[in-house]
Design brief:
about 550 residues; mainly beta; 6-stranded antiparallel beta sheet; 46 strands; about 50% strand; transmembrane helix; membrane; transmembrane
């Protein structure tokens, strides 16, 4: 090239000079273009550009859901819309108080996704739920029955303002309403008239109930070594509200079982379940103790019963819990001696509206052997169309109070969902003490866990708020009125002054889209004794699949979901 150019330049021919000028022009033009292209390439290969173009995409949002800023971990709901926060976890001790009143018989329900009503022997307590925060209201006394403290056995929700207090001997309607003036919530509650269960059977005791519809309750109880059933209906309003009973019908004539319960399926069907020792008045009868269920049908004031259907190869002489997903599928959780006193969750089906027998479905082990070493209660509630929660003191975990999430698949398989969360502890070495505890669903993705612990040295009540959402997908990068830009890979850089990460540590998120620090990356696994994240600084527990990334600097997070 140099020789050619020199030859052109030395030429005295005008044509040669013209060619030399054009060659020089193109030479420097291409040189300039190469520099420009190098600059463009370096920009397009930069970390920020790659994050923006390769790892950031736009997703739709629901109207009014754009109030969370850039830097918020998010998930997608079932319709593919952006949702703030992600995963499964528990906010512990959102309300904590010491009280001398023992909360025996504790039961809870949530009204209108806002008011938590807790009932225990002699009292009710109200909480206002504000996202992950609560406002505790003063306790109020329940009317006495025949001059004695009302002993709470059950609390049944009929509508978003109607509850029924069920005691050993009586039922009391309870109406709860609330108003909000922009600053404070004012809750008003009204007790109806007391109805004695003994009016339909003088020997009635140990009642168990569940709602059939918005107005009616199924009731089963023991009487003179028989199991009987009836229906209670809400009548009138406010202070005049009263529960009226149907006639009682014999559900089992050849003895009572140590443990029994009921699940309302629809307005005219309910399931009675029983287990444990049978007693017909001559003493306990020594025979196998399988789970047994029968179907009760309500028709024109009459109740008829199918035959017992036994779940062979199960053996239970302990408390159980029963609830239903819908009109044709219920769920029972129980301690099973054939599983080493572990906890089993099992599906129960009604095959059609005319079914007179149950059909047992799949089951899963919620907790393996050693969950119970004595007679102890267990509570379970359906939390959504597919998920349920089990709450129990775990004898294999020093008697600490444990919560476990389970799930029903589209094929009606019952599976575990995540680890067993220790919600409340007795103490590192303390073996004594007693828990009272209850679960209540707030909505399809949130729930409450209320517990009370009493021992010789400690008494306290603690309320926790739980959530269960989809896995995190990434972090928002910008705001838009109709959509969110989400970065789901690469390195995200936080620009706010508040966020300060610790390099090398794993970070997780919660339902609020917060950032939670875990352990150094590689140690948040079962092999290192880590089954979930216990963020004690924030009083939070979260599942390992809440993982959002790994800190690579104080402001940079390598996005890496579970």
């Amino acid at each position: 090239m140099r020789d050619i150019l020199e030859g052109l330049y030395t030429s005295n021919d005008e044509k040669g000079k013209y060619k030399a000028a054009w060659c020089s022009f193109f030479f420097y033009l291409f040189l300039l273009l190469s520099v420009v292209l190098s600059i463009i390439a370096s920009v397009r290969c930069s970390k920020s550009y790659i994050n923006k173009t390769l790892f950031t995409y736009k997703f739709p949002m629901y109207k009014g859901e754009s109030n969370f800023p850039a830097g918020t971990p998010v998930s997608l709901d079932g319709d593919g819309y952006v949702e703030r926060g992600a995963g499964f976890g528990i906010y512990r001790n959102v309300s904590f108080s010491s009280t001398d009143e023992e909360m025996k018989g504790l039961k809870t329900e949530v009204l209108d996704k806002k008011i938590l009503v807790a009932a225990y022997d002699g009292f009710i307590r109200m909480y206002v739920i504000e996202n992950e925060m609560v406002i505790k209201k003063d306790d109020d006394k329940i009317p006495t029955v025949n001059g004695k403290t009302f002993a709470v056995d059950h609390l049944i929700k009929l509508t978003e303002s109607r509850l029924v207090l069920v005691g050993t001997l009586a039922m009391i309607p309870l109406t709860v309403t609330y108003t909000y003036d922009g600053k404070n919530y004012v809750i008003e509650h009204t007790y109806g008239k007391t109805s004695l269960i003994t009016t339909i059977d003088a020997d009635a005791k140990f009642p168990h109930v569940d709602n059939l519809d918005n107005n009616t309750i199924a009731l089963e109880f023991e009487s003179n070594y028989q199991l009987k059933a009836a229906v209670a209906t809400w009548n009138k309003e406010g202070r005049d509200a009263i529960m009226t009973f149907s006639k009682a019908f014999v559900a089992n004539a050849d003895g009572v079982y140590a443990y029994h319960g009921v699940a309302g399926m629809n307005s005219n069907k309910f399931i009675i379940a029983a287990t444990g020792e049978r007693n017909n008045g001559t003493g306990p009868i020594h025979e196998p103790h399988p789970i047994r269920c029968k179907v009760a049908t309500v028709n024109n004031g009459e109740i008829t019963f199918g035959d017992w259907e036994l779940r062979w190869f199960s053996d239970s002489i302990n408390w159980f819990a029963l609830d239903n997903f819908n009109q044709h599928e219920a769920l029972i959780t129980y301690y099973d001696e054939t599983e080493g006193n572990g906890i089993v969750a099992m599906a129960i089906f009604l095959d059609g509206p005319e079914a007179t027998k149950v059909r047992y479905g799949g089951y899963t082990i919620i907790e393996h052997g050693g969950a119970a070493v004595s007679y102890q209660k267990i509570t379970m509630r359906i939390l959504s169309h597919s998920r349920f929660g089990v709450f129990f003191p775990d004898a294999s975990n020093n008697g600490n109070l444990v919560f476990m999430m389970g799930e029903r698949s589209s094929n009606n398989e019952i599976t575990r969902a995540g680890a067993n969360f220790v919600v409340a502890r007795k103490g590192r070495r303390q073996q004594g003490g007693l828990f009272y505890f209850s679960i209540a669903a707030i909505d399809y993705k949130r729930f409450t866990l209320l517990d009370y612990f009493v021992s010789d040295s400690r008494k306290y009540s603690s309320l926790a708020i739980g959530y269960h959402m989809a896995y995190p997908i990434g972090i928002t990068t910008s705001r838009d009125s109709k959509a969110k830009y989400i970065q789901f890979n690469g390195v995200y850089t936080f620009t706010d002054a508040k966020t300060k990460l610790v390099p090398g540590y794993t970070y997780y998120t919660n339902s609020n889209g917060g950032i939670i620090m875990g352990r150094p990356y590689g140690y948040n696994h079962a092999e290192f004794g880590s089954f979930y994240v216990d963020a004690w600084r924030d009083s939070q527990l979260c599942a390992l699949h809440n993982q959002i990334g790994i800190a690579v600097s104080e402001k940079e997070l390598l996005i890496r979901t579970y």
